[in-house]
Automatic annotation (TrEMBL):
GO terms for molecular function: nucleotidyltransferase activity; RNA binding. One of its GO terms (biological process) is tRNA 3'-terminal CCA addition. It holds the Pfam family PolyA_pol. PANTHER family: POLYNUCLEOTIDE ADENYLYLTRANSFERASE FAMILY PROTEIN (PTHR43051), POLYNUCLEOTIDE ADENYLYLTRANSFERASE FAMILY PROTEIN-RELATED (PTHR43051:SF2). This is Poly A polymerase head domain-containing protein. InterPro entries: NT_sf, PolA_pol_head_dom, tRNA_ntf/polyA_polymerase_I. Belongs to the tRNA nucleotidyltransferase/poly(A) polymerase family. Residues 34-53 are annotated as: Disordered. Transmembrane segments: none annotated. Residues 89-218 form the Poly A polymerase head domain.
């Protein structure tokens, strides 16, 4: 069943400088056709435990209006190489959001069922970077492609977000569980998409499509908890809001106001990019 889009209004709960919205009107899909809503008896039982949990949804990328041709050649080479070895591989995060909005992603993030050592064995020039949350940097065609693994993405974060009354899906298989858990650990609902470019399916476990239609920036976990876990998300929320012309949900805006002092603790070396990318709109 198609979900009609709403008339989008450029406004912000933080009174940020509005951006022209005409371009966004052209890229938001006119309708959002559902390929297979994840609705069943087990979902009904899950909703009784947590009525706020969004229903799972799958969307066909062609019906959303974007094609794999929008993915750059180096990214396709990495995706194809991992898939050829039998691993599941997905695009994840903001790049999927941008594809849905028919915008060219600034960069692409890949996540795979291969562990990082297997990723290293797949590519001739690859290195593991980061101690706290390690990922692979794949050097290909003159660029660096970031590849993370399902098996290290949540390492060191036991129980994160799982204490927020979000019930694990009943009867889901291993692949669904890994996708769902990874999406819960992301920052905003509109960054919580996962896209399988081979099956051409966009997975939405956190209500991201609904917030794209509403043009809202909303945290996945309760906003206060999310920003206390990573205060750089405050700047990221403002930057995304300004770039897309979206508004910020009331709960998220309230927590930004209450916790804004925490950005002073950001380390310039590791979080400076968020600061400099956002400071122009203050």
């Amino acid at each position: 069943m198609a979900i009609p889009t709403l008339n989008l209004v450029c406004k912000s709960n933080l009174h940020l400088r509005p951006l022209p919205f005409q371009c966004l009107r052209k890229v938001v899909p006119r309708s959002v056709p559902s390929v297979e809503p994840e609705e069943s008896n087990r979902d009904s039982n899950r909703k009784q435990v947590n009525k706020k949990a969004p229903a799972w949804k799958k969307f066909n990328s062609k019906e959303l209006g974007f094609r794999n041709s929008m993915i750059t050649s180096p990214i396709k080479k990495v995706l194809n190489a991992l898939k050829k070895k039998g691993y599941n591989v997905y695009l994840v995060g903001g790049c999927v959001r941008d594809l849905i909005l028919m915008q060219t992603p600034k960069d692409f993030d890949i996540i795979t069922s291969a562990d990082l050592k297997e990723v290293m064995r797949t590519f001739s020039w690859c290195e593991i970077v980061g101690k706290r949350f390690p990922i692979c940097h794949v050097h290909i065609d003159g660029i660096i492609v970031e590849v993370s693994s399902f098996y290290t993405a949540t390492r060191g974060k036991p129980g994160r977000h799982f204490a927020h009354d979000i019930e694990a899906p009943k009867g889901c298989d291993k692949e669904d569980y890994l996708r769902w858990r990874n999406c819960l650990n992301r920052d905003f609902t509109i960054n919580g998409f996962m896209f399988d470019p081979f099956a051409k399916i966009v997975y939405d476990y956190v209500g991201g499509m609904e917030d794209i239609i509403k043009a809202k920036v909303r945290t996945i976990a309760p906003a206060a908890t999310s920003f206390q876990e990573d205060c750089a998300r405050i700047l990221r929320a403002i930057r995304i809001t300004a770039r897309l012309g979206f508004s910020i949900s009331s709960e998220t805006a309230r927590s930004i106001k209450n916790l804004s002092y925490s950005v002073l603790r950001l380390d310039k070396a590791s979080d400076g990019n968020e600061l400099y990318a956002s400071i122009w709109i203050w």
